[in-house]
Write a structure and sequence with these properties.
alpha+beta, 23% strand, 319 residues, single chain
């Protein structure tokens, strides 16, 4: 996963410097902990907003992709949606954006993403995609309603090898404008992760574009998890530009969309409740976009699979 453009953490650090100059406009805040770590709040103790969410999503991608808000057609016409595009899909999405780090320190819990994962390099995923780093700075994004303290930073620093005073963490809960935006900006990442789980050679994916409807901000994080998952499972359309043969795309294509799972067809909160509120009890093949489209850059052929489910989105979003 060696791609031009510099280390992911260094790119995210530079982007974070620009974001810090705009915190007032983003309705965010900054605090420096006693050990020198910087924590950016985009929705835990401050309002945050849509632009904060777009900035947070770009940090998750280590600034290796573009994120924008546009008008979509789901669940109804002209509904806001989040678009993501990247020409470094494996590095940006799997090496950085994927929420693969469960942070549990004392009474603190949050889902960690961003390029700090590449600095730690502890996940089995990196054995397949490569791309681990030994950066001088470290940037992470945490999905949590509580801001991390020094103990959390120390735990991260021990795994990344980057000292606390060179570590920056950006935080937002799911049930916030910024948190909702950054989760729904994971359409391409979800597709790539599903392909990796199906043992597809993700190095064949050279570019990605995804679109998913932006849910209303939920009253609490549990409802937020339900709505953001539904946005991807039933509303996201992802296009991937790939190299290689067409036969392998036709073979794997029907297995990629969320509809390939027997759990598909109900709002996520119902599925989650039936699983005893245990993510790991849910069929992992459910977690994928509603529609996947492959464009073969070698042959010029297009392969599309899956379908959106506007009725489920309307039920989930309360439309």
């Amino acid at each position: 996963m060696t791609e031009p453009g510099g280390l992911l953490n260094e790119r995210a650090w530079r982007l974070a410097g620009t974001i810090r100059l705009e915190l007032d406009e983003l309705r965010g805040s900054e605090r420096t902990l006693d050990n020198g770590a910087v924590v950016l709040d985009f929705g835990a103790d401050v309002p945050g907003g849509l632009e904060a969410g777009l900035a947070l999503a770009r940090l998750c991608l280590a600034d290796r992709g573009r994120v924008a808000m546009t008008a979509g057609r789901l669940p109804t016409a002209d509904w806001p949606s989040i678009e993501v595009s990247t020409d470094a899909p494996v590095a940006a999405c799997l090496g950085s954006q994927y929420a693969g780090w469960q942070l549990s320190v004392d009474d603190y819990f949050g889902m960690g993403s961003g390029p700090m994962r590449a600095a730690a390099g502890r996940e089995p995923l990196f054995e397949d995609i490569g791309g681990t780093e030994s950066p001088g700075v470290c940037v992470g994004v945490i999905e949590s309603g509580k801001l991390p303290g020094e103990a959390v930073v120390v735990a991260i620093s021990e795994k990344t090898g980057v000292p606390p005073d060179q570590t920056l963490l950006a935080v937002a809960p799911t049930a916030s404008q910024a948190g909702t935006v950054q989760v729904v900006a994971r359409s391409v990442e979800t597709a790539l992760h599903k392909l990796h789980e199906l043992e597809f050679d993700v190095s064949r994916v050279v570019s990605g574009f995804g679109n998913a409807p932006l849910p209303p901000v939920a009253a609490n994080d549990l409802e937020g998890i339900g709505r953001t998952n539904d946005a991807i499972l039933y509303g996201a359309t992802v296009t991937l530009w790939v190299t290689g043969d067409d036969g392998s795309l036709e073979e794997i294509g029907p297995r990629v969309p969320s509809s390939a799972s027997n759990a598909h067809g109900r709002p996520f909160l119902e599925i989650f409740a039936d699983a005893g509120n245990d993510f790991y009890a849910i069929d992992p093949h459910l977690f994928s976009p509603a529609v996947i489209r492959f464009i073969n850059t070698d042959s010029g052929h297009v392969h599309s699979f899956g379908a959106v489910e506007s009725e489920i989105l309307c039920e989930s979003f309360g439309v």
